[in-house]
Design goal:
330 residues; alpha/beta; Rossmann fold; two-stranded antiparallel sheet; 38% helix; 20% strand
C-alpha cells in the first residue's frame, strides 16, 4: 500500500538511488527523500499561521512545515481518499447507501516531543485540501479523570499514565464519531487549572477529519476477566508517532518548564503558580525531578512501546527537526 502511495506522491520528485531503507514492517525515508515527495503541491500556510499553532519550546519553522508536514498532509489526504473509496465499495457490495464517516487520525508521543504542534499543523494543512475542509482536533487530556477523583484513587502523581484516563468515555467518544453519530461531546480540560472544567464540553459535529492527539492513544487492548477490552486505536484510520531520543525530550521538557515559569505559571489562577517564584536553578532542578519521576517512566513503560503500532513515525533530531519518516508497509 505504501509503495502505491509513494508513487502517487511523486508529482515532480524521485527518491535518490540509495532509496528508502526497508526493514521489518516499515520503509524509512531521509528528510531529503521525504521532501522530494511533495512535488509541486503548494504550501498553503504562512509564517503567521505557523506562529499561531507553534507549541511552546517547539521551534518549528516555515521550512520545516514545507519539508516535512506538506508531504505528510498530502499522504494523509491520499489515505483519506482511499478509505472513502473502500467504504463506498463496501456499501455498494452490501446494497446500502454510502454515508461517509469521519476519517480519524491519531497523533501520539511523549510529553514535550512536539505532538501537539504536529496535530495543530496537520489540522491547518488538511483543512485546506479540497476534500477535507472540516477538520476537528481533540486531545485525550479532555478524558483525564478529574483531579479530585485522581486524588481519591492515589493517582494524582500518575497523571498521563494510562490508568489516569476515563478510558471508557474516550472509547465511546471515538466509536460514536466513527459510527457517524451527528453530534458527539467531549469534556474540556484546562492546562491553566490542570483539571477538567466542570460543566463544560466541546462538541464534534461530523467533521471530514478528526485528529485525536495524546500520550497513550496507541495503547493495546487490556485483558479482562470477561475477555479483551477494545482499544480506542482500533478505530483510527491512520496513526502518527512523534519520536526522539529520550535525552533530547528531557532537555526540551526542562526548557519548556523554564519558559512556562515566566508565562502560564505566572498567572495567579495557574495550578503551578508557586513555580513562578523559583530561581533558574531551582526551576531546572524541579523540572528534572518531575521528568525523572513521572514523565520518563511513563515514556519508557507506556508510550514508547506503542511506537511500532503507528502507521507513520516522525523521528526528530536534537534540534527538533524531523530527520526521518517511516511508513508502515504491513
Amino acid at each position: 500500500m505504501v509503495s502505491s502511495l509513494v508513487v502517487a506522491l511523486e508529482d515532480n520528485g524521485t527518491v535518490n538511488e540509495a532509496g528508502p531503507r526497508s526493514g521489518g514492517p516499515y520503509v524509512t525515508l531521509s528528510r531529503s527523500e521525504w521532501s522530494a515527495l511533495a512535488g509541486k503541491t503548494p504550501l498553503p500556510l504562512t509564517e503567521e499561521d505557523i506562529t499561531r499553532v507553534r507549541g511552546l519550546g517547539d521551534p518549528v519553522s516555515l521550512d520545516e512545515v514545507d519539508t516535512v508536514y506538506r508531504p505528510l498532509s498530502r499522504l494523509l489526504d491520499l489515505y483519506s481518499t482511499a478509505v472513502g473509496a473502500l467504504h463506498g465499495a463496501t456499501a455498494e457490495f452490501l446494497g446500502e447507501r454510502a454515508s461517509r464517516t469521519p476519517f480519524v487520525i491519531a497523533v501520539a508521543g511523549s510529553v514535550a516531543v512536539g505532538k501537539s504542534t504536529t496535530a495543530r499543523l496537520l489540522r491547518e494543512l488538511m483543512a485546506r485540501w479540497p476534500r477535507s475542509p472540516d477538520v476537528s482536533l481533540v486531545t485525550t487530556d479532555s478524558f483525564l479523570l478529574p483531579n479530585a477523583e485522581l486524588q481519591d484513587r492515589g493517582l494524582l502523581y500518575r497523571k498521563g499514565f494510562p490508568e489516569s484516563y476515563d478510558s471508557d468515555a474516550l472509547h465511546r467518544f471515538v466509536v460514536d464519531v466513527k459510527s457517524g453519530v451527528p453530534s458527539v461531546s467531549a469534556p474540556v480540560y484546562s492546562h491553566l487549572l490542570y483539571d477538567i472544567v466542570p460543566g463544560e464540553a466541546t462538541t464534534i459535529d461530523q467533521p471530514d477529519i478528526l485528529i485525536v492527539e495524546g500520550l497513550n492513544v496507541l495503547q493495546q487492548p487490556l485483558p479482562l476477566a470477561s475477555g479483551i477490552a477494545p482499544a480506542v486505536s482500533d478505530y483510527f484510520d491512520v496513526s502518527i508517532y512523534v519520536d526522539a531520543e529520550s535525552s533530547d525530550i528531557r532537555g526540551w521538557y526542562v526548557d519548556r518548564f523554564l519558559s512556562l515559569r515566566e508565562t502560564a505559571f505566572s498567572q495567579p489562577d495557574s495550578y503551578f503558580h508557586s513555580y513562578a517564584r523559583l530561581s533558574d536553578d531551582e526551576a531546572r532542578l524541579r523540572a528534572e525531578e518531575i521528568w525523572d519521576a513521572i514523565n520518563a517512566p511513563n515514556l519508557e513503560h507506556n508510550i514508547a512501546p506503542t511506537r511500532d503500532r503507528a502507521t507513520i513515525i516522525l523521528r526528530k533530531g536534537p534540534d527538533h527537526a524531523v530527520e526521518t519518516v517511516s511508513l508502515r508497509k504491513l
